[in-house]
UniProtKB/TrEMBL annotation, chain B:
One of its GO terms (molecular function) is transferase activity. Pfam families: TusA. Keywords: Transferase. This is Sulfurtransferase TusA family protein. The keyword Lipoprotein does not apply. The keyword rRNA-binding does not apply. Gene3D superfamilies: TusA-like domain (3.30.110.40).
Amino acid sequence: MTKILYVQTSGTDTPERLYAPFVLGTTAAAMDVEASIFFMIRGITAVRKGEAEKIRLGSFPSLAEVMRQAIGAGVRIYICEQSSHLLGIPPGDFIPEGTIAGGATLNDLALEADAVLTF
Amino acid sequence: MTGKITPAREVDCVGLFCPMPISRTKEEIEQIGIGEILRVEADDPAAEEDITRWAKRAGHEIVGFEKEEGILTFYIRRMK
């Protein structure tokens, strides 16, 4: 199966950058493409419990709604919990759908994907 | 199942975080013979996914895995 990986490095301080991987992931699933999103650096702030509910931009639904659609479509979520140490923020209470992962997982996902996009 | 596995060597990665559990596991598996088993303990939650993927890519076999009170224990057979 064709695979695509989105790497989310920007976080809730730039909410306009958070929708794309979920929208694209849902689209990929509809195209029979296996999609994963890896949240790292500031990106992890988007997958802390309760954060996506607070974000709503323009005429888009809330980020939580878009996230729910993507997860429901089978998009896999990976979270670099260790980025919280890098940022000096308390380790997050992350959404339960996410898998806590690190460098070996990101390298492996990138190597096995047919394409990698970063937001 | 893992009660029957006798490791040739053990490595304690408790308290270590990415990338150290992977680095230590690689160093230690090179100290055992092909076909022998390395037991790895870690408490980094990322290690479950990371070590599983590392083993697959490195060509080794995870023959046992336990998760108890935040401690992950892997039994990895060196395959090459």
